[in-house]
Amino acid sequence: MFKNKSQPEHLQQGNTAEKIAATFLQQKGLILLEKNFRCKYGEIDLIMREGQMLVFVEVRLRSNTNFGGAAMSINHAKQQRLSRTAELYLQTHGNSACRFDAILMQSTNINAIEWIQNAF
After folding, report:
1. In the chain, what's the furthest Cα-to-Cα distance?
2. Interval 11-46: pLDDT, tens
3. For residue 58, what are the contacts with CB-CB under 8 A and spacing of at least 6?
4. Domains located in the chain, CATH noted
5. Which segments of the chain does DSSP mark as H helices, in order?
6. pTM of the predicted protein model
7. Is the dihedral of CA 68, 43, 25, 111 positive or negative?
């Protein structure tokens, strides 16, 4: 795979993790609607659909668990930013039943993904 030399390594790894997460969820039957939806409140990594359910997905790659790992990095403030961002998305794209999922990764190995549905 070719790396974008203009991006810092951590951003390249994040992009790779998001691509792997999208592939993983598509293999589980979800349909990808958007990647990296941004607004003034924040960013949602993946927006997907599972049946009639809209799924907002936060992807976290943490190879070092010294600071609590991937799950601990989705703190209350991050949850609030995701919620506000999702509210704006729903206002502009139509209201729908939705949930927030988390994809937790310690490496970019698709077989080592932890998928938490209804994470918060």
Report:
1. 41
2. 777 788 999 999 999 999 999 999 999 999 999 999
3. 44, 45, 74, 78, 82, 100, 101, 102, 103, 119
4. 9-116 (3.40.1350.10)
5. 9-27, 69-72, 76-93
6. 0.84
7. negative
